[in-house]
Structure prediction request, 144 residues.
Amino acid sequence: MKPIYVFFTALAFGASAFAHGNATGAVLERMEGMKSIQAAMKLLGKQAGTNDAFDFSAVNAAATDIMHHANEIPAVFAEKDLSMPTEAKAEIWEEMDAFNKLAAALESAAQIAANAQNADELKSAMGAIGETCKACHSQYRIKN
Ligand code: HEC
Prediction:
């Protein structure tokens, strides 16, 4: 497996291994947003692996979904809520500008994926998207 797939497989496993059924309010809302982003990434990952059946409109829809959720990150993280079972670090609310910049970087990277014309272009766009997930999680998420 290429490193990019190992990374996304690890993310997928991480989400299923830890249930967050008792999250509420702002914490639940931002976790749901992240889960939608992850679901869209899975769909993109499948498309990145198929040169023959590349489906531009499916790719465009999934990448647009990521853009939409990335755009909402500043709003869903606006309230400082560290209720359990959050994995958010308190530093987010001390470094809101830097945090929101990473959200904007995700949105731009997803915009490039939305315009990918084939699996290779999508693969490289996904690499750039993955860098933004990693950068933000390593700084602002307890478990990454
Ligand atoms: C701007 C920062 C930022 C970016 C960019 C980001 N994340 Fe997150 N992500 C977080 C934070 C913070 C949490 C922890 C939220 C919490 O537990 O309250 C999180 C949590 C998650 C979770 C766990 C959700 C749950 O149910 O607990 C998944 C899955 C996830 N992110 C996937 C992704 C993927 C995939 C990407 C890239 C496509 C991404 N994230 C990009 C900040 C970010």
In short: The helical segments are 3-17, 25-48, 56-76, 96-114, 119-140. The chain has one domain: 3-16+23-140.
